[in-house]
Every structure is written in C-alpha cells, then in structure tokens.
C-alpha cells in the first residue's frame, strides 16, 4: 500500500513560478487532447504507448512546445486517469451483469469480456457501458508530472531540501526550495496553486508503521456528524467536528450569496457593454485565492480532528468494527435546505480513510459491517425503536439510548452475524429484524416456578410500592 505525501515550495520567486505556470498551461492542452480523443468508452484498451507512438509518427507532438519527457508523462498520467474512471464505471456494469444473468458460466463470460475490452460485441454490455461510463473532459491546467530520473534533489546547510525540475528550454532546470527536510522520491506531481508549488509523491505505507501499540479490546464505532466517532462503550471522539462542519457550511452560505450578487452586477455591466467594469469586478471581487486558502485550512482541520479521534479509538482496541458507508443512502424524510447543505459537507470519506490508515499502521484489525438500521435498533431488546433526534426509545423496556451509542453497540454485535452480510439489502435487513422480534416474543417464559397467587383485590399500598 502506498500513501501520498505533500511538500510545499518556500520563498519561490515570481519568475520561476511564472515559468512553471506556462509549462503547466501547455501540458494542460496535451491532457485535454488526450481526454477528448481517448476519453470515450469505445476507446477501451488503448495504451499510452500507442498514443505516444501515433503522435510522434503523425507530427502532433511537434506542436506542443514542451520537452518530450514532459508531454509523454502527461499522456501516461491522463491515460491512467481515463482507465481509472472507466474501471469505476465497470463496477456498476458488473453489478448489472450479476442481476441480469443467473447462469454462472454466462456471468463469467460477461466479466471476461469487460476485463479484456471485448464488451462491444454484446448488446447488453454495450448499453450498460454507455450508461455508466461517460466521455470525460479535462480542464486541468496546473499540473506537471516529473519522472524520477528527470529531477535532482539536494540539501542546503539549513537542512531544507531543494529540487530542480526541467523547464521549457533544454538543459535549463528550475530550482525549487521546499519547506521540508525529507527528500521526495519517485515520480513527482507538481500542482501550482495560490502562488505555491505543491510537490506530491508516493511512499510505501510500511515506512510509516508506528511504534505506538494499539489496545487489547474490541469495539464498534459509529460515524457521526456532530462527532467524528462514537464507540460501543459510549465515548464520543472528535466532538468538535459538528461545530466545525456547521460553521464552515453557514459561512459558505453567506459568502456564496454575496458572490452571486456581485456576479449579477458584473454580468449586467458586461451586457451593457462596460467590459472594463466587468473585468475589474471579476479580477478584484470574484477571485478564488482566499476561498481556496480557507478551504485548505478547513480540510486540514477536519483531517486533524478525525485522525485524532481514530487514534483514540485504536488506543483502546486491537479490533475495530465499523459501518460501511460507501453506498449512498436516501432518506425518506424531506429535510430543510440548511440541513441538506450541512449534510453535504459531511466528511465520512475522511473518516473511512482515517480508520483504514491508522488501523493498518498501528496493527489493529478493521472489519466493515452492514450499516442498515444500526441507529434504529434498541440494543437492550434488539427491536426497532422510536428515534427522536439523537434519542432512541425502546418500545418494550422503555430505556432511552443515545442513537450513536446504540448504533455502535449494534455494529459490534453485527460482526459475525451470518444472516446480515455486508451486501445484504436494507429491505431484507428490516425483514430479518422483524422476524427475530416475532420469534423472540413467541418463546415461552423460561421459569419453572409456580406463579405467585395474587388477591382478587390487591392492597393499594402494595401496588404503589411495586
């Protein structure tokens, strides 16, 4: 397993940054051309070397205006992105194949056709590919991919690392100071944003294995909005996450409303022929530098809160059971506009990444279970309860649970349930829960003692005492 590390430029002068921006702009045209010509699903199976050889043969590469290694790496990277998007669409096609064909031999034949790019010969596969795999478009014009043998790394006396990458002219490299003492390795991806150069590179995850031991217990965790995690012991981790997401969402609501008003003024001026005023408004009032900077700070804070919460869970458990929230779910309730906007900012993907990464690095086992109805079942009697807000009321014993705590307990109990697997549909999960409740209520009371004799008219004081 590999993870990505990011280093940032430090005190890079404007001239070097401008040269990098021009190179990234030209490579962006190459990337857009690759997507335009080979982003269609009908070009499945075309390799980046075939594209490279074809463009060198017909003279297309001579008009790029960048070094050969630069545009070749861009072609390779764009073709890899196209293949990744295509494979993501094939996942849905495989599910459609599984639903349509009952014969295992026919399924295997269809899977093989998808794997080897022969799906165009079958009408059903062709329809599904056209439905789930769209022709992509690339507008990325701020990235430069540098091969591992095309840059040099050295360390200055203060301990900081410098790298030099190829420029637009032959044998003229651009030296970039970095804010780190760790030298990047392998293929680099330079992303130009906000006057800074981000240097992305991949390292092996075993190099990040931590010496801090994990716990010895087994806990279930529920991923929440108001807090990052709630474990089966009732402990809430990352309680500041909800306020952080809510504050950023409300800030974006106000800011975007103001930007919309300013944009309307700019559009009105442009329609009236006052292009100078419209250009000044777009340049001075509708920029994205501050917005992108705030967004990066917000994402960094969210990741800090989430990873800290996951570390706290792993401190007490060597086996973590979590819910699988990769599949989308739709609520039957009509929520308000503000609620939908706030839920759209829910960073459950960051929580899933943190659980997987921290568990692997610290040697803790991670098990994913079906999330259906985990926050609606009262663990005390294992029946569907009545949820009101963050409270879950048991209809049998009357106990009141915190919904996230109840979900964490149910997630822990669901591990190893043979009837409810990871891919069981939620309708079937509800049927199983109701069937188990009916079977349990029909069982006789396991008590062999004779029933106590009660008076026909019991004493009122005794009734009150009971």
Distance from N terminus to C terminus (CA atoms, Å) equals 62 Å
Indicate the structural class: alpha+beta
Strand order of the largest sheet: 10-9-8-11-12
Helix content: 40-55%
Measured on Cα atoms, how large is the radius of gyration? 29 Å
Uncertain regions spanning at least 5 consecutive residues: 445-450, 452-466
Q: Number of helix segments?
A: 13
Tell me, briefly, the overall form.
globular
Number of strands: 17
pLDDT averaged over residues: 87
Content of β-strand: 15-25%
Helices and strands, in order, run as EHHHHHEEEEEEEEEHHHEHHEEEEEEHHH
> Major β-sheet, in short?
5 strands, mixed
How is this structure best described in words?
The protein is of the alpha+beta class and 466 residues long. Helix content is 46%, strand content 17%. The protein contains 13 helices and 17 strands. The chain has a 5-stranded mixed sheet with strand order 10-9-8-11-12. Strands 1-7-6-2 form a 4-stranded antiparallel sheet. Helix 3 packs antiparallel against helix 4, helix 3 packs across helix 5 and helix 6 runs antiparallel to helix 8. The longest helix is centred in the first third of the chain and has 33 residues. The radius of gyration is 29 Å and the shape is globular. The C terminus is likely disordered. It comes from Actinomadura rugatobispora. Keywords: DNA-binding.
